[in-house]
Amino acid sequence: MKKLLLSLAVLASFSLQAQQDFTQVVRSYLNTNRATLGLNAQDFSDIIQANQSWSSSMEINNVYMVQRVEGIEIFNSTSAFAIANNGQVKYAAMSFVPAARAKINTTNPSINAASAISRAAQKYGLGQPVNLEALEERPDGTLVFSDGQISMNEIPVKLVFQPMEDGGLRLAWDLSIFLLDGSHYYSARIDAQTGELIHELDWVVSCSFGTEPHSHAGHSSKEELSMLFPASAAAGGSNQYRVFPAPIESPNHGNDQLVQDPSSSNASPFGWHDTNGSAGAEFTITRGNNVWAQEDRNANNGVGFSPDGGADLNFDFPFNFNTAPVNMQEAAITNLFYWNNLIHDVMYEYGFTEANGNFQENNYGNGGAGSDSVNADAQDGGGTNNATFGTPPDGNNPRMTMFLWSPSGPAGEPLTINGGPLAGQYEGIAAQFGAPLPSTPLTGDLALLEDNNAGESTDANDGCDPITNGGSLNGKIVVIRRGSCEFGTKILAAENQGAIAVIMVNNVGGAPIAMGAGAEGGSVTIPSIMVNQSDGEDIIDLLDGGGNINASLEEAGPYAIDGDVDNGIIVHEYGHGISNRLTGGPGNTGCLSNDEQMGEGWSDYFGLIMTMQPGDQGGDIRGIGTYAIGQPTNGGGIRPAPYSTDFAINDFTYANTNSGVSQPHGIGFVWATMLWDLTWALIDEYGFDADLYNGNGGNNIALQLVMDGLKLQNCSPGFVNGRDAILEADELANGGANRCLIWAVFANRGLGESASQGSAFNRSDQTEAFDLPVECTLGFEDRDSGNGVIIYPNPTRDQINLRSLTNIGDAQVTITDLNGRVVLTSEVDLSTIGTINTSALRAGLYLVQIQSENFTQTTKLIVQ
Hints:
The protein is of the alpha+beta class. The protein is built from 14 helices and 35 strands. The chain folds into six domains: 2-102, Nuclear Transport Factor 2, Chain: A, CATH 3.10.450; 113-202, Nuclear Transport Factor 2, Chain: A (Roll); 222-406, Elastase, domain 1 (Roll), CATH 3.10.170; 412-557, Glucose Oxidase, domain 1, CATH 3.50.30.30; 575-738, Neutral Protease, domain 2; 777-863, Immunoglobulin-like (Sandwich), CATH 2.60.40. Strands 1, 2, 3, 4, 5, 6, 7, 8, 9, 10 and 11 form an eleven-stranded mixed sheet that branches. Strands 21-22-26-25-24-23-27 form a seven-stranded mixed barrel. It is globular. The model is unreliable at 1-18, 210-236 and 779-786 (pLDDT under 50).
């Protein structure tokens, strides 16, 4: 308890610091540096402090300032400043608009806030808002309206200036609408003169991971994994959870375990089921201060089922992967609850705290807005093969949506025709909505649906138009042909006519598919399957000719894959919340919307580092989403290449962001590749520490630098901005001890000193470069000629890497001390990146001579 009280006291002192106003400090800094920054005095005469927090790792105040003109904010002008307690500005990452006053069109709106909401609703096809009324006006001028029955949340509206492509600033109404189905959380700018939608963001990030064949493989031992996180194996008792615990990425990567008391006393001082800040749990279900995990099979984003652990908080529910996921809801939701809490607790130690906009209902007096724990929806019926995370500004609940994934492997045989000319068993795939197929046969006569073809459809059996033979469907298993309308719509229509189940006939050749719910599938309560075209047409022909068919349906697999146990995906989605809340401060979650932004990269990176296991190596293959898409643990995943420091596996560099990779996932992949290389370079330097909470290894250092870099970078960052923020984070936190190592890693992937990102709003104008700052080359005189070998890290401890700017091929490397004695020789292939182990060398200065048939270079090397 003494440790807990001390921790809370320290955090409370940071909360007090969060009240400091650095506006005058920033204004003085900008005035001194305005020529360098390209600003005039009016550009910072009307600035406001949006957020400020203390960084214990960098020992500076992270301050976020917003630019205004005549009291109206410029959208996404948030600029980040690192300010010491003595008032010295250590670093500034600017997003202010130069000569802003001359670029505005007006300060007087022609349409009011309510009209702007109506225009946005019209644009998004939501109809006219109902009972729309203003509820309050906040001190910053924001008008808060009722939800108008078009949004899950109340609708805030305020005037801003929207930067345009032509360089102008247009007066606009800034508003947000969270669609009732949760699919989009639009942040929109409506032109205050014309009512036109001139800019939009979607706070819901969607991350489709694909559909590949599924298999289970490669389990790690419990003994190997139990040392990594403070979650002891539990033989019985209270506050325990059966999960796939960290760092196990998925059921393919390890076995489920029963862990006890896994909450962090620092990050979650009252446990995971608290909300009032007093001893004792407020909830015995999977709900607490950091997350509320529940099922959402009907996709209504309402209150769904949450497993109950009872007074002892005993969440020991079995996993069963040989049945439909709905039959292991308790276990899956428990896993989702555990991982959301675990990520919260780990990232708290790296600075994602209350004052920095983390996700908590009760902030325990430590700053920030609160009332924004994660709503985590499991087995959501609103889609398949996907996962999403919606991040509104601080004080508003984010939503994580986890879906089911298409089953894989050969189709099972859930359909049996009982007698007649078609007697036998048939392959089929169960729908991913409605009731699961029963474990005992559901038997009934088949009936062919007929509709009136009154719409666009010309198929009388596809159910896309009003049903004409409803009386014949009551109590029957109804046969429908796949058509142009949604599966959920036609199956619900059949159910409303009394159908007890549905057989959907594919209208194209090949295997049947797993049907998605669409807009109405969440209301379906009967089971359904799809059969292939050939088998289905035989059934339709017999029924259409007046024949009678009696059939049975029962569970037969293959079974959908539950994203709630793919922990890499869970961390990835949560990672969007982290990067969006930290970039530009917690009050602005729209800073990662520019073309070159790296949001998907940070999310991949968090997933990778949270699932590192002892014995991993940098050159290993780390695929993203392998479990969900049915690949083994060494599968390539859903990115353009697996993550690996080995260029033979992943040779992507900065130039690849211009073309050849997707936006935003491919662009993010290149960024995460660099961050992964950086992590392993730091592990090579400082070792790996299994304690992810408080360890001192290179992995801990890397994660801290990445988190601090997010806080330091500007709104709408590009790769160069992100690189420079990490370099500055190392300067502030470590005195620049890793400066040349960091430079070498980024330069190795084309983000060297002279690399250019062009405009961060253009994904096709990047220029890569592999050069290093002169202080990091240590005697390398041929850097500018493009002929030579870069040696890094330098200084080093255990190894050096040699990267040739041209294909030198095989080379002899000789290392001598200052007395001329040869201490190490090695043959290195410099057609790729060569590596030499220097761990046997004593600390000191050495000369490295590189010789090949037509090349000689001598470079100084410092061994620490």
